[in-house]
Structure formats: structure tokens, C-alpha cells
Amino acid sequence: MSLSQTLAPRALSLLDTLVGFDTTSRLSNLALIEWVEAYLDDHGVAHRRVPNADGTKSNLIATVGPSIPGGVVLSGHTDVVPVDGQAWSSDPFKVTLREGRLYGRGTCDMKGFLALALAAVPDLVTADPKKPVHLALSYDEEIGCLGAPDMIRVIANELPLPALVVVGEPTNMEAVRGHKGISTFRVTVTGHEAHSSQTQLGASAVMAAVKLMAYLSDLADQLEREADPASPFTPKHATLTIGVVNGGTAGNILARECAFLFDLRCQGGLDPDQILAGFYARVAETDAALKARFAHAGVTIERRSNTPPLNPEEGGVAEAFARRLAGDNGPARVVAFAAEAGQFQGAGFSTVICGPGSIDQAHQPDEFVEVSQMERGAAFMARLVDWARSGE
Predict the structure, then answer these.
(1) Is 42 left (phi over 0), alpha (psi -120 to 50) or beta?
(2) What does the alpha-carbon distance between residue 102 and residue 104 come to, in Å, rounded to a whole number?
(3) Which of 30, 122, 218, 339 is buried deepest, with most CB atoms within 10 A?
(4) Where in the chain does DSSP place strands (E)?
(5) What is the pLDDT averaged over residues 106-127?
(6) Is position 84 annotated as part of the catalytic site?
(7) Residues 131-186: pLDDT tens digits?
(8) Do residues 377 and 356 lie in contact, with contact meaning Cβ atoms separated by under 8 Å?
(9) Among 189, 213, 205, 149, which Cα is nearest to 342's?
(10) Are 117 and 169 within 8 A, CB to CB?
């Protein structure tokens, strides 16, 4: 039996365990991290945490092999998106096999890759590797890639310098060389409550927020009209969407507060702040107008994240490495979603995205990864073990 044939069922078992931890971003990921630490301890693999400020969440870095430069980083996030309000056909926190598909929250995005990486650990340990393989597990990727920067700084400054990084986001086990960046914002409008029949006595935060959101909606349409026909992305233009709106207390009360979240996703070469310059000006105007009527009123805008794009690297060693291990001879590829890959590249690492599953299944009810994708991932990891053993 080949190495990939023994590695695949091990990965499926690990996937079931990992999915069993509810690591929705609003919750802690420490239970999963503790379990992974115990697993690594069982195999004699050194590891360290890189926690958040209050210690409620943590990244985890582990190294299999010698403490020398030239290793490979396998990186993935531990958090998942919520299942609230989604119509699941089975328990989202238990892997369910149906017709060659493994259903469960995070099976695709991206605990499938983490399971494969962990499944390779015993084989890497016994291979007496000549080159190190580093595991990098992050937190809070799903809410703006917030956890990875601290982890990346440790990898860049305290580890023997790795040669490349593979970020295992779902790409059907095909090498992806580029992704869009994402900037996320929270806008909070504070008004002044009054009876809705006496608009002269108050200021509705909802009404002011609607006008700001209308500006963003028009800007989104403008970005679509200005799409570069030569762009390799789908969609070709920068995208702007409003994802959450909350405000008001009753239909007959001028709303005291309204808040909304939006994100802007840009390919390399576009400046989010330049795109939003007109909106910033509109926010300032609205803030001044509200404060002129009520001192406590106004508008604030908070940038929640600013994740850089992954720019295609011609002749990149990471892409060549991933293609070799994945058996991928296809065309150059980019994706519209954002990932931690751009953060790794920004720290100076040659970086590629390659992992099991399709982004089409991510964030959906009945999220799944195909068993065949996990088997392809197992073959990738088996070739990684051979590479580590030979050091070539």
C-alpha cells in the first residue's frame, strides 16, 4: 500500500475530530489548539503558541525536521464561519459521508487541509527529514485575517528562514498564484431619538446611514462599469458589498443608532483608500451635519482589517513546488477571495495557495469536501514527505 493510501484514511479520521470543535470566529479556538498540541506531543513534535492579546485564542507553529533554513510552511486557519440560520441536512459539527462527499462546517474551508497536514506528521517524523516542514495554524482569518500577522512575524524573525509557504485554502488541489485583497469597515451613525412624527426634534441614524449606503451602492456599480477587460479575476472588477446592517428600536422612533459593515476587495495595483476617498468625504460631511444639530451625534468609520492581495510571482518557487507535488500542469490561476497568502508574501515569502475542495462550497449550508479531493491532498502530502526525506 502506498504512503498516500495510508495517509488518506488517517486524514479523514482527523477531519472528523477537527470539525467536531466549534471554532466559529466569535468563539475561542483553544480547545482545538490544545488537541493539536497533544497530537504533536504524541509524535515528539515541538510547537509553540502565538496567542492574541487576552489569551482567548491562539495561533500555533510546529516544526518537523531539522532547524535549518529552506523549509516549507503549511498554513491554514482554524476558525470557521457561523452556521446560524442555515438549513443543514446533517449536524454541521460532525462529518457526514454521503455519495462521496464529506459534509460539515469547515470540511472545505479549511479543516480538510489541516487534517491532511496533521496526517502527514507521523510519516514526516519517521522519514528522518533533511528539510523542515513547518505547520502554521491561525485564528480569526474569517473576520479579516486578524490572527496571522503575529504568527508570520514569529516565522520570519525567529525560525530558520523557510523557502516557501503553501496556504491550503480550497482550490481543488490546484496551484493558485494570486488573490484579491480585502479591506473591511464598520460605520456607526449616531442620531437623536424623537417621535417619528416630529422629525424637527430628532435625527434618524437609519436615514443618515441609508444615504451613506446608497453612496456605496453607487460606488459598487461604478467599480463594475470600470472593470479591466484584461483582468484575470472573476469578477474582473473590484467588488464592494454591504454585509450587515443593524439599527433602530421601533418603527415610530427616530433611530438613535445604525451600524453597517462593508468590505472592498481589490486586485493588486488598486488602492482601497483612493477608491473610498469620496466616501470618506461623505462620512465627514454627514458627521459635521449631525453634530451641528446634536453634539453627541455623528458618524464614525472603523477599519476592521486590511488584508493585502497575493500578487502573481513570475517564476515563483512556491507555485512551482505546489505544482510539482499536486501534479498540476494547468494554466496560471487567480481567485477573487482573500486569504492569508498575501500577508505571507508581504513578509517576503514566496507563497502559493493549494488545498482540497472548492470555494463554491465554502460558507454554504451543507458545506462539503469530496473524498476524491482528500485523496488528491493525501498524494500531495506523500510527495511532501518524499521531498523532506530527500531534501531536494
Answers:
(1) alpha
(2) 7
(3) 339
(4) 46-51, 58-64, 72-77, 96-98, 101-103, 133-138, 164-167, 178-179, 181-190, 239-247, 257-266, 298-307, 334-335, 350-353, 368-370
(5) 98
(6) no
(7) 999 999 999 999 989 999 999 999 999 999 999 999 999 999 999 999 999 999 99
(8) yes
(9) 149
(10) no
> What is the pTM for the complete model shown?
0.92
Considering 79, 169, 319, 366, which one is annotated as catalytic?
79
Nearest to 46 by CA among 158, 164, 163: 158
Q: Which of 16, 22, 37, 141 is catalytic?
A: 141
d(CA 72, CA 167): 11
Q: What is the mean pLDDT of residues 280-284?
A: 98
The dihedral through the CA atoms of 340, 346, 351, 353 has a sign that is positive
Mean pLDDT of 96-114: 98
* Residue of 231, 230, 248, 249 whose CA lies nearest to 239: 231
The answer on pLDDT for 392 being more than 90 is: no
Reduce the DSSP state of residue 284 to 3 states and report it: helix
Asked if the model's pLDDT at residue 1 lies above 90, the reply is no
Q: Are 271 and 166 in contact (CB under 8 A)?
A: no
pLDDT in tens, 204-216: 999 999 999 999 9
- How high is the pLDDT of residue 54? 96
Whether the Cβ atoms of residue 65 and residue 132 lie closer than 8 Å to each other: yes
Contact yes or no for 180/298 (Cβ under 8 A)? no
Element (H, E) at 280: helix 277-293
Residue 368 near residue 94 (C-beta atoms within 8 A): no
In 3D, which of 79, 87, 73, 57 has the Cα closest to residue 117?
Answer: 73
Indicate if 141 belongs to the active site.
yes
Q: Write out pLDDT tens, residues 247-272.
A: 999 999 999 999 999 999 999 999 99
Query: Rounded distance, CA 110 to CA 170, Å?
Result: 7
- From the centroid of its chain, how far is CA 20? 20
**Which pLDDT belongs to residue 285?**
98
